[in-house]
Amino acid sequence: MRHEDPDLLKAMAGPGECELCGRYCERREAHHAEAKGMGAGKQIDAPFNLVSVGRSDDYPLTKCRCHRLLHDGNLPRRCVISVIALREKKSVEEIEQMIRDVRDAPKKMW
Ligand SMILES: [Zn+2]
Ligand SMILES: [Zn+2]
Asked: What distance in angstroms lies between residue 66's CA and the mean position of ligand 1's atoms?
């Protein structure tokens, strides 16, 4: 099961501040808190699973290396969840639960 939302991903790209470091980036892209490869064909494009970060392949143009650091495992997942929780006005636990619900319920609409 997948939940893809190209419009949402597009909305989280483009110029703006990296949600993790706050630096202004000419180009950003959405990072999935719960990785794309979390299950066969699973990709969850939903605000509670996404942060907008500077495009790592455009560094130094993007000013920030957050996306690269994330994928290298150098930024704790909890940082990402905290940023999402603040934006979505939920607690870290609530965001974790929402992700878990989707991840563990392959028969749901996702
Ligand atoms: Zn950044
Ligand atoms: Zn990513």
From this structure: 4
